[in-house]
Every structure is written in structure tokens, then in C-alpha cells.
Design brief:
InterPro entries: Cation_efflux, Cation_efflux_CTD, Cation_efflux_CTD_sf, Cation_efflux_TM, Cation_efflux_TMD_sf, CDF_Transporter. The chain has 295 residues and is an alpha+beta fold. The protein has 8 helices and 4 strands; from the N terminus they run αααααααββαββ. The protein is 68% helix and 10% strand.
Length: 295
């Protein structure tokens, strides 16, 4: 079992525990703001399950029907998570409006807030781990889950402050107002998750920093060639697809050109662990005198 799959299983377990804790906090207090916090956690559980399924699919090797692999399955998980976030926000807004029309006093506020705080601490620690491992493993599903959990932590802190203010002042309308603000925050998070995932599905280019690193690796490892040009690269889940043209002297043998290509591929794999490299070899008269100059 890969580390990404183990982490995805952990996310599902953490999501279920946090949902149970937040539901208990809402049941004790009757606060619609704490209910909105619990409703957001239902999204966390569903998203963790979707991420687990997507990561397992993405880990499958290429086959006849999917010769480039199954890496993009993770982006579908992230898009699905964004959609579920939007649905949760709509449900929270509906609950907030109902509570605004018929406000109810908050019961056992301090006990409920203490219970809810324990869930936020657990969420915050797990979100930090997901963001770190999502970047390290280049997993869009884990990174999206981590960003959403971190948003959940921020909204939970805001909810706690607002519930304290509502209890201290007796202004019951603060409770549904906080729930509405949570919904807006959730919608903002969902927009960012969907936007980032759609970029991956549309074969958006890798970041400029990654492209610059690729150029540097190619320049340092292509000794014997003339130049490299038309570099293109994209991420698909944990894999990076890299393509470029390599210009070699016209009199160079196929075997010698192949050795240069092998050396470049090995260097790119060392820097980008799951890179898929395609090199088109061209004779010297095809040189564009631009792009990557071989050192």
C-alpha cells in the first residue's frame, strides 16, 4: 500500500472522528453556528472517501485503454470535493436563515465549545500533514483535502469566537449570522478547489519554477547535443509529462544520440521522480538557436 493511500485512509478516519465530535457539540448547545461547522465536516468525510477511491485508481499502471496511466483520476476527486463544498454551503445558509427567523438560546455553551475546539485541533494537525504530503507526493487529491481542512479550522475558530460573543451579549442573531459567514467561507474554499482541479484536467502547464528547473537539468545533462527547444510539461496527478526537441550534430550516430537521451531522462527522473519524458531528436539544421543552450 502506497503512502498516499495510507494517508487517504487516515483522512477518512480523522473525518469520521471529527464529525462525531462536532455533532456532539451541536447536540449539546443547539447552536446553528456549531451545526454549520458539523455540516462542513460531513463534506470532509465524503471528500476523504472520494480522495481514497481516486488515489487507488490513479495508482493503477497504464493499460491498453489508458496508455498514459490513470493519474488524472485525482483531479476528478478534487472537483467532486469542490461540488460537495458548494452543496454544504447552501445547506448551511438554509439553516442560518431558519434560525434567524426563529432564534433559540444556546445551551451548555462552554462545554460545547470545548468539545468543538478539540475537533479543530485534530483537524489542524491533520490538515498540516495533508498539505505537506500532498506537495511532496504531488497528489492533487491530498492537497485539496488539506486546503479544505485548513479552511474548516479557520471557520471553526471564527464560529467559536462568535458563539462566545453571542453568549456574553445575549444577541441571539449572532449565531445564525456566524453560520452564514461560515457558508460564505466554505463557498470561497470550494471555488479554489474546483479552479485548481480544472486546471489539471485542462493540461495546464507546470509552474514556471518547475519549468526553469527542467531547463537547467536538460542543459546540464545534454553534453554532446547542440540545443533543446519547444519544452512543454504538464502535471497529471503525481506524474509529470515532459516533451521537448533535442538537436544533435548531423553526423552523430543513432546510438550516441540515444545515450544522450538516456542521460537526460535519468537526470529528469532524479529531479522529478515520476516524470514521463518524450524526446524528439533532430539534426543540426533544425536548430532554432533559442530555447535551452547545452552547457
Amino acid at each position: 500500500m502506497s503512502r498516499a493511500i495510507k494517508i487517504a485512509w487516515g483522512s477518512l478516519a480523522v473525518g469520521i472522528v471529527v464529525l462525531g465530535i462536532k455533532t456532539l457539540a451541536w447536540a449539546l448547545t443547539g447552536s446553528v453556528a456549531l451545526l454549520s461547522d458539523a455540516l462542513e465536516s460531513t463534506v470532509n468525510v465524503a471528500a476523504a472517501l472520494a480522495a481514497l477511491i481516486a488515489i487507488r485508481i490513479a495508482a493503477q499502471p497504464a493499460d491498453a485503454d489508458h496508455p498514459f496511466g490513470h493519474h488524472k483520476a485525482e483531479y476528478f476527486s478534487a472537483v467532486l470535493e469542490g461540488v460537495m463544498i458548494v452543496i454544504a454551503a447552501v445547506v448551511i445558509l438554509n439553516e442560518a436563515w431558519s434560525s434567524y427567523l426563529d432564534p433559540q438560546p444556546i445551551r451548555a455553551a462552554w462545554t460545547g465549545l470545548a468539545i468543538n475546539l478539540s475537533a479543530s485541533v485534530l483537524n489542524g494537525g491533520w490538515a498540516w500533514l495533508l498539505l505537506r504530503e500532498g506537495r511532496r507526493l504531488q497528489s492533487p487529491a491530498l492537497a485539496a483535502d488539506g486546503r479544505h481542512l485548513m479552511t474548516d479550522v479557520v471557520s471553526s475558530v471564527g464560529v467559536a469566537v462568535g458563539v462566545i460573543a453571542a453568549v456574553m451579549t445575549g444577541w441571539l442573531w449572532l449565531d445564525p449570522l456566524l453560520a452564514a459567514l461560515v457558508a460564505v467561507n466554505v463557498l470561497w474554499s470550494g471555488w479554489h478547489v474546483i479552479r485548481g482541479s480544472v486546471g489539471g484536467l485542462m493540461d495546464e502547464s507546470v509552474p514556471d519554477d518547475d519549468l526553469e528547473r527542467m531547463r537547467s537539468v536538460i542543459a546540464d545533462s545534454a553534453e554532446g547535443a547542440v540545443e533543446a527547444h519547444d519544452l512543454r510539461a504538464r502535471h497529471a496527478g503525481q506524474a509529470s509529462f515532459v516533451e521537448f526537441h533535442l538537436v544533435v550534430p548531423g553526423e552523430m550516430s543513432v546510438e550516441a544520440a540515444h545515450e544522450i537521451c538516456d542521460r537526460i531522462e535519468a537526470a529528469l527522473h532524479a529531479e522529478f521522480h515520476d516524470a514521463r519524458v518524450t524526446i524528439h531528436v533532430e539534426p543540426e539544421h533544425k536548430a532554432k538557436h533559442s530555447g535551452i543552450v547545452v552547457l
